[in-house]
Write a structure and sequence with these properties.
The structure is a homodimer.
Chain A lengths: L6 H14 L33 E11 L5 E4 L10 H15 L20 E6 L18 E5 L3 E6 L2 H14 L1 E2 L5 E10 L5 E7 L7 H13 L4 E5 L15 H6 L9 H12 L4 E5 L7 H6 L4 E6 L2 E9 L4 H17 L4 E3 L8 H5 L1 H10 L5 H18 L3 E5 H5 L9 E4 L5 H10 L3 E4 L14 H5 L10 H6 E8 L9 H5 L2 H10 L7 H17 L20
Parallel strand pairs in A: 2-3, 3-5, 8-9, 8-17, 9-10, 13-14, 14-15, 15-16, 16-17
Antiparallel strand pairs in A: 1-7, 4-5, 4-7, 6-7, 11-12
């Protein structure tokens, strides 16, 4: 009675259920994918994920002895022991490579001459290694990795490329049946296809404990993601603890326990930086702000029921000067707390019902000459917010509606395309207007379904829209979004990984890396590696890992 | 850009994706449920789950002082300190009630006279408390609970009812804002609607570490489930370590690490017993046995390609005497290792292709007068297996195909209905033929979908089939099945709970307990309670728990 063979039966079952259900409208039948069990084989690229741009793996195997092998700064590197970012990465990757073996004391014996890999030398070429910087949209993540006896050399202009190369190096090492650590001689040249490779986490619908966020940052690094889009506040709760406006979280968070203090935020940002990951916070307005209103008087629009206030509130009140004073102070703080050059300003899904009910808003509309076109009022508001954020010397990302409604945007604005229908048309329009864009629409990972849906995410081709070469260049990446309606710390990790890994390879590897069978063979191993490194990534299909999750 | 508001857009997105996808057939569009955010309120029944059959909660509150409160054997009880099962349960429930408070040192002060609950007295009424027994299909799980100052009394005929009552008592206790533990005076009379309330776990497609199984047994007890249907072996792996045939797991398990030793099995059975849970193992044949063939020569049918063996194998070979000798010895062992009176024998989904290809099978068919009706051969095989298991003095459960094919069954056979289409018709047929039945079809929890699918499971009415009163009595329960194709220790718990809780209440509570809104209010609290007790149950919808999962 396995589900895979029985999807047809289940379709009928839903119909039967509808007939026998007395208490609610039956849901539509679920179209289950009939899953052929894939044949697991060996990829010529081993367990590498995402696949490097250029890769040559030679047959010659070298052995690594845990007690002797070193990750070191190579000759001529502009980064040395003073570069804490690399020092931390060396220790981390030593642990990832050797730390999980069951046979840690093996391989201490002297090896035959000429068969041992003694070192990985990391050489940063650029005068400014950027060791103490934060990564940004233009960060150079390219690297070259050459594994030959007796030392491997990892060359990169900047530390960001070194981080990506360390991950790749760690993925090249494998254990044989005797517990020896082996690596094949290899030559790799690698760099990302897209500059913006993000994961969206939502900490408003459900609070995510710090540990969940940090664990996810680890997993992101294993998959060469470089942006955490932190959808930190929304209607349901305001966990961001503001120094300027402490009442926002004081009254707007779920409880006193469900808060990110300034220390927490700092920790996330620093932990991310050490992994070459940017943290872009989203403070979405004027909609999605119910929780803001709890701690900030007069921020939201009072809704009216005829002539009287109804007691409920709508979007941010766009007609008061106090609103803009508040926003100026808040975004000034946010701009300093989050070092990234971009802030996500949201701007999606504004419901006009409340504005329409409010007589003061109506009067303001008349004064401004907006008539009854509330989209003009929305644009008026957003324009002011964009100006505020510009004054704070930040760039911004907005959801596509802001572009669609004709708000005047700075040329360096990034428009995030999320509406599922006809997103390729939207990509054409946005880039046709000369704006940079990132794609989220096909990668809403909170939508779950039975079976191997990673293939669906994997098969998206982001440049498959109509446009000139110049337009294609404006498409700079994408994001896998895990909205939080049904996700919290209990299920976040297995729901996100390895499904997001499919998006990770799509955004990093070459356009022609599309072989699903080869991807499956590599991803199965990559998933087991994530598990070994403490990420509770769920299985792709039947099978096992040598090291199963134990502590769950 | 929340998913809930955008399901229509997503439907269209799938179409757009199909057009742009080059590498695989696009999946059918996903019909997403438009989810209204439910209003969370207080149920008059607090956080009780499943709802007791009869319940009176009075306004008067009593306080419990952790340092003084005791769970004790009451006067006249036939169970005393010698009853390890109850002793263990007392300690467990003390911990569940008080162990998670952040303010453990509160409430030590003397309370005003007449406001404190000092004890829960547990009184077993029957001469045989069944303290040292294993639970079985006829076990009496009824109890009465009376909470009045200064002592609460829990009366049950047998320990099984006491276990259920302890769970209910623990669910009545709540903490106020000052960290005090309170309980309302209450009167409860309770007993299950159905005798068989099961969870199916599959340890063949993926191995489940022992800890996962034990954690699940805890969760089952919190939801008053009483059967673990352990689908222990199948095509993919044979983790059961047989004493008689050690090669079955020696060659048929994934690795030496992916095995349940006799000690492991004993531990599961005992852990379950202490929680009033039966363990029914499933050894499915003649199909679903590929892994068996690895360690047992000549057990499976060799398939032919024309005149030559193809090298692959089909179902169990039903024409050899050695097959039945092997099965006799194996089921003899199984019958002694698993104390329950029932074994699940499977019998589903037998593919005839290989049998048809084999000339020896063809000849046997002719000798037996089966012609070309391979269903007769299947029945011949299953009949012999049933006889073998009967000789080992065990009852059996079979999947519905065994009944459908007219195999002669002992009158006490339980037929499990799993095929989704028209399962109500099947229930009529099975019970019409006088057989006991359990229902799994609408509760395949491995089928996931976006949103609150617990409502779908909750709204099933198991007796909603055409049949006499006598037939209805033959429907003795059901099972929530979590097949393992896409489930292992990384995602088992959040995928199963609280979705299975919906099935739990359906099988325990009265037929008229169908109010979805009230269920939601209770289940949200019940889910947070499971979380507090170490079960990573996923959220039902937006919101929070006072104690979030931290260690994930």
């Amino acid at each position: 009675m396995e589900p895979a063979r029985l999807f047809l039966g289940l379709l009928c079952a839903s119909a039967a259920l509808a007939a026998s259900s007395l208490h609610q409208r039956a849901p539509p039948p679920e179209p289950l994918l009939l899953e052929e069990e894939p044949e697991l084989g060996e990829s010529p690229s081993g367990s590498l994920w995402p696949l490097p741009r250029s890769l040559r793996i030679l047959p010659r195997q070298l052995q690594l002895a845990p007690a002797r092998f070193e990750l070191v700064h190579g000759p001529g590197s502009t980064a040395g022991p003073g570069c804490a970012l690399l020092q931390d990465a060396f220790r981390r990757y030593y642990e990832y490579i050797f730390g999980y073996s069951k046979w840690q004391n093996q391989g201490q014996r002297q090896l035959p001459a000429g068969t041992e890999l003694l070192q990985l030398q990391v050489i940063i070429g650029s005068k400014d290694s950027e060791c103490d910087n934060y990564p940004n949209i233009t960060s150079n993540e390219a690297y070259q990795l050459s594994v030959t006896e007796p030392v491997a050399v990892l060359k990169a202009e900047k530390v960001w490329g070194a981080l990506r190369g360390l991950e790749t190096f760690s993925q090249l090492v494998y254990e044989d049946d005797y517990g020896s650590f082996l690596i094949n001689e290899s030559e790799i040249t690698d760099y990302p296809r897209f500059a913006h490779r993000g994961i969206l986490l939502d900490t408003s619908r459900h609070f995510l404990p710090l540990k969940s966020i940090l664990t996810n940052l680890d997993a992101m690094a294993f998959n060469k993601f470089n942006v955490l889009h932190w959808h930190i506040v929304d209607d349901h709760s305001f966990p961001y603890q503001s120094i300027t406006f402490p009442e926002l979280s004081g009254k707007g968070s779920y409880t006193y326990d469900h808060i990110y203090t300034p220390t927490d935020v700092r920790l996330v940002v620093d932990y991310a930086r050490l992994r070459g990951i940017r943290v872009i916070p989203e403070f979405d307005s004027p909609g999605h702000t119910q929780s803001w209103g709890k701690g900030q008087k007069d921020l939201l629009t009072p809704c009216f029921n005829g002539e009287h206030q109804s007691g409920s509130y709508g979007p941010v009140n766009p007609i008061l000067n106090t609103t803009y004073h508040f926003m100026t102070d808040l975004f000034k703080e946010i701009s300093s707390v989050f070092p990234d050059a971009y802030i996500h300003l949201g701007g999606d899904e504004v419901d006009f019902t409340c504005w329409k009910s409010n007589p003061d808003v109506t009067e303001f509309m008349m004064q401004q000459g907006f008539g009854i076109d509330y989209a003009k009022l929305e644009s008026y508001y957003i324009q002011k917010i964009l100006d505020i954020v510009s004054s704070a010397h930040k760039g911004y990302i907005v959801w596509q509606e802001v572009f669609d409604k004709g708000v005047k945007l700075k040329p360096d604005t990034i428009v995030e395309v999320w509406i599922g229908s006809w997103y390729t048309v939207e990509l054409s329009r946005v880039t046709g207007a000369g704006f940079t864009t990132i794609l989220a629409a096909p990668w809403y990972l909170d939508y779950i379904s039975y079976g191997q849906d990673w293939k669906k995410y994997y098969s998206v081709e982001p440049l498959n829209f109509i446009g000139s070469e110049k337009q294609k260049k404006l498409m700079i990446g994408g994001e896998a979004c895990l909205w939080g309606e049904f996700v919290d710390a209990t299920n976040l990790t297995p729901r996100l990984w390895p499904r997001a890994s499919a998006v990770g390879e799509r955004l990093w590897s070459s356009e022609n890396v599309t072989n699903i069978k080869d991807a499956y063979n590599r991803l199965v191993k990559h998933r087991c590696r994530m598990l070994r490194r403490g990420i509770a990534a769920e299985p792709l299909f039947v099978g096992y890992c040598d090291h199963e999750a134990r502590g769950l």
